[in-house]
Design a protein that fits this description.
alpha/beta; five-stranded mixed β-sheet; two-stranded antiparallel sheet; elongated; disordered N terminus
Length: 209
């Protein structure tokens, strides 16, 4: 049974790995760096998550993120520098909102930091458990194969450090509000009542054709 994702959620212990084969950028980085170094004493947040039990199943347990937990927020990665920097900004927002003490950004491919880089950073900052959270909408090949494989490879060098890969964003009701807000803002911009949002700024793409 699974409390947060389809039944094939990837929760493994490093010691028993089986790897499958197969215009605001500087301000954003500064904000991320500042939050990165000053969140160890921020309040702890509580959540319900999945943990492996002794017989390989999953139990539901309420507990808080502690200073021994590392979170990696991983997106696909882009050849466009501006897109990659937006992940740093999101991670800074996430840290500020949640107060989690160890949070690292990662790109699955095409850019750095990689999942391996982020995993190493979490361990170096004191994490003995790493939670990899895919910043993807739906469960596809990247969630089912690529991210688990890359994470398993990254974890090989850290025996005793456990990790899990959470479900992607999926069909969450709050995403309805996010999408609705985005649509309304873009329509307001086209009507001349709002500036371009941070996503469209400088691209000239938010217009009627």
């Amino acid at each position: 049974m699974n409390c947060c994702a389809p039944s094939n959620i990837n929760i493994k212990r490093v010691s028993s790995l089986q790897v499958r084969e197969g215009s605001n950028s500087s301000r954003t980085v500064l904000k991320f760096a500042m939050l990165h170094d000053h969140t160890r004493n921020v309040r702890r947040s509580h959540a319900t998550s999945c943990l492996p039990n002794g017989d390989g199943g999953v139990r539901r347990e309420s507990h808080g993120i502690t200073n021994k937990d590392g979170v990696i927020i991983v997106d696909h990665g882009s050849r466009r520098k501006e897109s990659n920097l937006m992940l740093n900004e999101f991670v800074a927002m996430f840290i500020e909102k949640t107060g989690y003490p160890i949070v690292e950004p990662a790109h699955m491919e095409l850019a750095e930091p990689s999942i391996r880089d982020a995993f190493r950073s979490c361990v170096q900052r004191g994490a003995n458990r790493v939670i990899v959270s895919p910043f993807f909408l739906f469960p596809g090949r990247h969630w089912n194969q690529d991210i688990p494989s890359l994470t398993a490879e990254a974890a090989k060098d850290y025996p005793g450090v456990s990790y899990m890969i959470t479900a992607p964003l999926g069909l969450h009701t709050l995403l309805v509000d996010v999408l609705d807000d985005r649509i309304k803002h873009c329509l307001s911009h086209v009507a001349g009542d709002a500036d371009e949002c941070a996503v469209c700024a400088g691209t000239g793409k938010c217009q009627l054709y």
